[in-house]
Specification:
By secondary structure, the protein is mainly beta. It is 10% helix and 29% strand. The protein has a four-stranded antiparallel sheet with strand order 1-28-27-26, with no helix packed on it. The chain has a four-stranded antiparallel sheet with strand order 2-3-4-5, with no helix packed on it. It is elongated and about 115 Å long. The termini are far apart.
Amino acid sequence: MSNTSSSDSDVVEEENDDLLPISSHVNIIHGLKSVSCLTLDSNGIRMITGGHDETMKMFDFSSMDKSFQSFRTIQPCRGRLLRAIEYKPNNDMILIIPADCQAIVVNREGSGKHVIYKTVLGDMYVKDMNRTKGHKSLINYGCWNPTINSEEFMTCADDCTIRLWSLNKRDQQVDVIRTKGESGRDVRTTTCTYNQSLYENENCNLIAAGCENGSILVWDRRRSFVHVTFKCPNAHLQDHFITSLKWSYDSQIFASRSTDHTLKLWDIRKFSQCLSSYENLPNDFSMTNISFSPNDKYLITGVSKLNQSNSNGKLMIFNRNDLSKPVQEIAFNDSVIRTMWHPKLNQIFTTTNNGLIRVFYDEQRSPMAGVRLCLNRKERKDKTKDDFIANINPLASSACSSDSIDETHDILPERNPQEERKPTSLHQYIVQTGIQSNFNEKEDPRVELLKHAEEAERNPTWVTPAYVHTQPKPLFQQQIDEEDDDNEDFVPILKKQRKS
C-alpha cells in the first residue's frame, strides 16, 4: 500500500513539474526605451535591468513594495547604451558591458564611484590582435565563468577576438582567442558563453562562440586556443549573425538564436547537423537570448514585433526534445528581447522594447520569493511630497462645508513674516535690525526723491555750483520736432558745421 502511494506522489510531482508558471504576471517599468539587459542574483533577491536609455536600475525584492520602484539608478558609462549585465556566481560583483571597448566590474551595490576593475584598452595602431592588451573595437557580449570561486570573465568584440580576463591579473587579458571563417579570414564575434554546468563532466571546459557569418565555434580549455575543437560553419544563414548561445544544465546540448529568425538545438557529439529547429521567429535585436527551465525540459525565447504587419511580439516556450511545435505562446504588444527563467524562483522574467519588464509566476508552483514578496506590501508614501491633510488648519476646515471648500478661508495656517526672517548670523541680524527697519517696501522711490526737489533748487550742493561762473543760466539742447521736416537749414547746436 505504501509503495502505491509513493508511486502516485511521484506521478503528481512530475505533472507539477511539467506545468508552466505563467498563470499570473506583473509589470515593472524601467523607462521608455528598449531594455536590453536583465540579470538576477543566484538567490533571486535582486534584479538589475539596463537598456538604451544608458541607465542601470537595481531592484531589491526583499524591501520593495507593490509599486516596484528601483532603489538605485546609475549611469555606468555616460553616452553609451548597455549591451549586457551579469551577476557573478557568488553575487559579490557585477559585470557591465556597455557599447564601448572596455568592460566594467563594480561591486554588488553598483557604486559607480568605486569601480573594481575596468578592462585595458587595446592599442589602435597594432594590427596583431594577440599583441594588444585589450579590445580595440566595440564589445558585443560578456559573461562570468560559472565556477563559484572563479575570478574570470569573458568578452567578445568586433575586433574578431574573444578575450579571457581575470581580476587577479589586471594589466592585460589572460588569453586571446581569434575567430576565423572557412577561408581563414577573421570574423566578428557576436556572442560567447561558458558551459554552465557546475559538475565535472567531459563538456565542462568548453567555450562556445557565435559569429556574424552564422558559424558556431567551440574550444576546449584543456587544449590550445589556436585550433578549434568543434566547428559548424553553416549553423545559420551567412548574412545573419548569431545573437545568443545557451548550454543546457546537463551540458549535453545547447541552443542557438540568430537574426535569420530561427531557433536551433545542437548536440556537441553530432555537431554537423542540428537536432531540431523552428523557423518564423522574427528577431530584430542583437540581444535576443535563450533560457532553459530549471528542470531542463523547456526553453524560452523572445519574438520581435514586425512593423510591416499587425503581428505582436511573443514569448515562445518549447519542449527541449522537440522544437517542431511550441508548447505555449504568450502575446505581447511589443517586441520581447531578453528572457530569463530563474532556477530558484521558478519565475520567468522578460523585457520589451518599450521599457517594460514582465514577470510571470504561479501561486502554486513558484515559491514565496521574488516578485511575490512585493505583492502584499503597501505602497510607501514619498517623503519628498507634502502631506495635504496634515497641513489643513482644523479651525478653517471646520468652518467650511463638507461638500466644498470656501475660497475665503485659509487652508494653510497664516505665517508671521517676522518669524520667517529670523537671523541666522550676526551679519544678517545687523542688516535686518539696522537697515531694513527704515525701509518700507511699499514706498515708491521716485516719489521719495521728488520730495526733496524744492530744497535742492534752493540749496544746490553738487552739480549746479560747478557751472556758476561758466554757465550761470543753464542751456539745454533744443527738442527737434519730428513733424517739421521743411527746415533744411536747421543745424543742431552741438554739431559742428563742415568747412567748405
